[in-house]
Amino acid sequence: MIKSKALRDSARGENCTMRLPGVCNFNPETTVLAHVPCGMGGMGMKGPDQISVYACSSCHDALDNRQPGHHISGWHMIHAIAETQGKMIEKGLVTVKGVKP
Q1: Euclidean distance between the first and the last CA atom of the chain, given in angstroms as a whole number
Q2: 3-state DSSP assignment of residue 24
Q3: Of the listed 35, 70, 71, 79, which one is catalytic?
Q4: Distances from the Cα of 41 to the Cαs of 27, 36, 46, 88, in angstroms?
Q5: Cα–Cα distance between 55 and 1 in angstroms, integer?
């Protein structure tokens, strides 16, 4: 399991990659690295930093079920993870052997 201060810090000032309709506040000042529920943590435990998204405070609340009534589709999660990982690769925070950004 990866825990990385650099990955967590990389969310600062980024646009939200979740952009949940009717939820997102589109405010990069509130963006954090939000952990996607993936079954790799226990009760009260966060998942790994590599399975995370850049989420504004409103989308993060929805992701963590602090905003009841908002369903998050698998498509939204997968799209947000892919976009976030792409940004991390562009920043040189995540590397893939044999691939240059």
Answers
A1: 24
A2: coil
A3: 35
A4: 28, 10, 6, 22
A5: 21
Distances (CA, A) of 44 to 36, 40, 77: 13, 11, 20
The per-residue pLDDT for range 30-73, each reduced to its tens digit, is: 999 999 987 655 555 567 888 899 999 999 999 988 877 888 88
Any catalytic annotation for residue 60? no
Say what the pLDDT of residue 15 is: 98
Tokens at 16, concatenated: 């939200």
Q: Which amino acid appears at position 15 of this protein? A: N
Q: Which two tokens stand for residue 62?
A: 């929805």
Residue 92 pLDDT grade (very low, low, confident, very high; cuts 50, 70, 90): very high
Position 74, amino acid: G
> What is the rounded distance in angstroms from the CA atom of residue 23 to the CA atom of residue 7?
24
